[in-house]
Amino acid sequence: MSPPSDAPILDRLLAVAEEAAVLALEHWERGVSVTHKEGGLGQALTEADLAVSRLMHARFGPRLIEEETVDRLGYGRAERLLSEDRWTFVGDPIDGTKPYAAGLASWGTMMAACRSGWPRAGVMSLPAWFDDRADPFAVRRAADQRGLLLAAVDGVAYWAPTRAGRRERELQRLQRPDRLTHHVGWLPVAAQRYTLDYEQGFFPWSESSAVSDAALLALGRIDATCLNHMLWDAAAILPVLEALGFGLYRWPDLAPPPTRLLDLFDRTFSGHDALWLVCRDLAAARALARAVRSSGPERRDSPD
């Protein structure tokens, strides 16, 4: 099944996502060196991140907001771009740089097309998502890497397998699995600020990146997750999860999300000071909210 013919914006995202995946795999096969931003150990950076950043700028032009150059762009300019009724692109060159550099599966490239304040189409490419855990010594060449592509436009989600970063088949319609696993995405930022009460029947799961966390949710491997990362981590994820029927609920009061994407984040494009639950409905959000506790000095329990 192909997306509707009136969605050329998705074709544009898909083309760049494939280029980015191929480029990232080429760098990975040659070997990458890891540095850290601002001298800390929390934010890793490789030459591949910068190469994919340059590719995104070449393909999307001046209406691009992406992780590696957002400081030069500034909040005010980003706010103006996102508010306009013209396509503005938000990209994350490599989400999960640490697993990427380590040769693990849980990394990917993400890009979204936004208009009038909200992401309307998104693509997540996980070029090495297939992980043969039965053979711990297997090392695949870039050309043999099998992956997953997730996309959404016009409220419909799609998927396709990839090899060497490129689609092996046409996009297929993706439906949300109905099974429950009783596991929830619990990425490091949430784990630093909150605790999860296991006695409420939820168990944390994390594969170290926002893109892999969203893929687990879209494929029914986890039941819910939390969103409190950065603008470029969320923009491509939201169209896919919304198309699958997931909603955003603010912890602890379960308020609905704002009408502008940027209002989920502060002026440094960070969502670390808020916690949004990504759940299939209000009842599921209410149950998860009861299991979340603030680990800070001002403890705030979720409502009954």
Helix and strand arrangement:
Layout lengths: L7 H23 L4 E2 L7 E2 L1 H14 L3 E3 L3 H4 L1 H9 L4 E8 L1 H6 L5 E8 L2 E9 L19 E8 L2 E8 L2 E2 L4 E2 L9 E3 L2 H6 E3 L6 E3 L4 H9 L6 E3 L3 H4 L2 H7 L3 E4 L25 E4 L2 H10 E3 L10
What key attributes describe this structure?
30% helix, disordered C terminus, 304 residues, 3-stranded antiparallel β-sheet, 17 strands, 8-stranded mixed β-sheet, alpha+beta, single chain
SSE order, as H and E?
A: HEEHEHHEHEEEEEEEHEEHEHHEEHE
Alpha carbon gyration radius: 18 Å
Most strands sheet: 8 strands, mixed
Low-confidence stretches: 298-303
Beta-strand share of residues? 15-25%
Indicate the mean pLDDT. Answer: 92
Structural class by SSE content: alpha+beta
Q: How many strand segments?
A: 17
Distance between the termini: 43 Å
Tell me the quaternary state.
single chain
Q: Please give the share of residues in helix.
A: 25-40%
Shape: globular
Number of helices: 10
Describe the structure.
There is one protein chain. The chain has helices at residues 8-30, 47-60, 70-73, 75-83, 97-102, 188-193, 210-218, 231-234, 237-243, 282-291; strands at residues 35-36, 44-45, 64-66, 88-95, 108-115, 118-126, 146-153, 156-163, 166-167, 172-173, 183-185, 194-196, 203-205, 225-227, 247-250, 276-279, 292-294. The protein starts with 7 loop residues before the first helix and ends in a 10-residue tail after the last strand. Strand 1 and strand 2 (44-45) form a beta hairpin. Strands 3, 4, 5, 6, 7, 8, 9 and 10 form an eight-stranded mixed beta sheet that branches. Strands 14-16-15 form a three-stranded antiparallel beta sheet, sandwiched between helices. The protein has a two-stranded antiparallel sheet with strand order 1-2. By secondary structure, the protein is α+β, with helices and mostly antiparallel strands.
